[in-house]
Amino acid sequence: MTRQRRSDAESGARQKLIDAGIILFGLHGYEATSTRSLAAAAGVNLAAIPYHFGGKEGLYRAVASHIVDARNAVLGPYFERIRSLCADPAAGRDTLVSALRAMIQALAADTLGTSQGRDASQIMIQEQIALTPAFDLFYEGFFCTALDAWTGLVARLTGRDAGHPDTRLRALALLGQIVIFRVGAFTVLRHLGWQRFTPEAVESIAEICIEQIEASLAPAAAASPGGAS
Amino acid sequence: MTRQRRSDAESGARQKLIDAGIILFGLHGYEATSTRSLAAAAGVNLAAIPYHFGGKEGLYRAVASHIVDARNAVLGPYFERIRSLCADPAAGRDTLVSALRAMIQALAADTLGTSQGRDASQIMIQEQIALTPAFDLFYEGFFCTALDAWTGLVARLTGRDAGHPDTRLRALALLGQIVIFRVGAFTVLRHLGWQRFTPEAVESIAEICIEQIEASLAPAAAASPGGAS
DNA sequence: GTCTATAGTCGGATAGAC
DNA sequence: GTCTATCCGACTATAGAC
User: Fold this and answer.
1) Is the pTM of this model over 0.90?
2) Any chain B CB within 8 A of the CB of A214?
3) How far apart are CA A51 and CA A60, in angstroms?
4) Is A195 on the interface with B (CB under 8 A)?
5) How far lies B144's CA from each of A102, A139, A145, B91, B165, in Å?
6) In this complex, how many residue pairs, one in chain A and one in chain B, have their CB atoms less than 8 Å apart?
7) Which residues contact A56 (CB under 8 A, 6 or more apart)?
8) For B11, which DSSP code?
9) CA distance to A154, A211, B211, B214, per residue, from A216 (Å)
10) Which residues of A touch B186 (CB under 8 A)?
């Protein structure tokens, strides 16, 4: 498995274009990224894009697919653990909470602390507002399974029905506590007077989010007011 | 004040272009929005853009300025009330919490429920990831004062120092609970199997966010663990 | 103030040599 | 597989008639 078994893999132009695409598509979005800038950043010829990917859109799909695989490789295990714990009726609350902690910490460290995680999440954010033909790839390949696992965990910890819309809304809102730091990074950094998220800052953010999420999950299988719908 | 006192206000081409810009810049971003599509959507001649605004960038700045004014007109009073309550040492917790509820409800109703609020927030989201020269206009004109008021309220309700970075992080995270529904609207709607946010759904979201925010603010002026930095 | 016509540039894709 | 040269359409902005 040293190579991806591709007929045209000898020079690495494919991979160089994908790497450049992760950066440039994330920075400027699909439409505003030119094939010339992609070829220049990758150090390959312009004609390599139609040759290897059939065109700009093909390159974008390849970038999207690569990102989904890479994020699943990094974060998949945490969601997989959550899913298996939720399927186990014997799993205790402490075990569930520790899986929650691990997931939030991994998510914060990856999307805020690593350059690969930052670049990948940047394209996922672009996809949220632009809605290119690759949205399904992101949703089916990553968001759907991740959100299902997260919702299941929130349902289990609060004694709610994972299928009820209110439970999904609760889970999404709680996830927003960490997502805002990535989506609004420029505003957040400016409001804090920071230049970037240091490793210590990332740890603080994760810790604060975990604490506040746990506080919201505390009223577990109690009265369950149910929301407002 | 029937007119904005502009020397070139007779035909309304300026306003029609700004209205079109709010929609199109929000949908596709600054770079990917063409002057042709703007002129067509506004029903004015292409040359009207350089004439009235000096060019595409001038139109974008006018759009940004218009959005800041409009959002301040809608949401400013809520932040103003929070600010004045925080400055009043006699304000009770119930009063503060009711101001919090009102603000979250107004924010949800505006950004999720009204077309004007949706369009305006869409450009603010674009600005978060693209970082055009108009970012300062948004930050100075809206985000900064709004976040300061919100942080002050969270500080007051939790007995923390509003100037401490951890308090700002806490406030930002809590705000993320409502922001995620706007930023990730497509993913949220798809995950819920919804076509759009109905008024009832917006109410549910606001109610759930308020409840979970209050739960995180509950451990008020108690031990105050302080976070992890 | 509004229009047509056009300049000058940049976009993605292709043909064909090597 | 990689390159150069090129087509053709779309872009922003301007000139000048009305």
Assistant:
1) yes
2) no
3) 14
4) no
5) 32, 33, 36, 24, 15
6) 173
7) A35, A38, A49
8) S
9) 10, 9, 8, 8
10) 128, 131, 135
Report the chain A residue with the minimal C-alpha distance to residue B124: A184
Q: Which two tokens stand for residue B154?
A: 């969270």
Residue A31 one-letter amino acid: E
pLDDT tens digits, one per residue of B4-42: 444 444 469 999 999 999 999 999 999 999 999 999 999
Give A7→chain B minimum CA distance, Å. Answer: 35
B186: nearest Cα among A28, A183, A129: A129
Residue pair B75/B54 in contact (Cβ under 8 Å)? The answer is: no
Q: Which domains does chain A have, with CATH numbers?
A: 64-217 (1.10.357.10)
Q: For position A11, what pLDDT does the model report?
A: 64
Say how far apart CA B176 and CA A185 lie, in whole Å. Answer: 12
Hey, what are A25's tokens? 């598509």
Give the CA angle between residues A63, A147, A115 to the nearest 5°: 40
User: Could you report the per-residue pLDDT of A196-226, keeping only the tens digit for each?
Assistant: 999 999 999 999 999 999 999 975 544 444 4
Pick B139's closest partner by Cβ from A190, A211, A229: A190
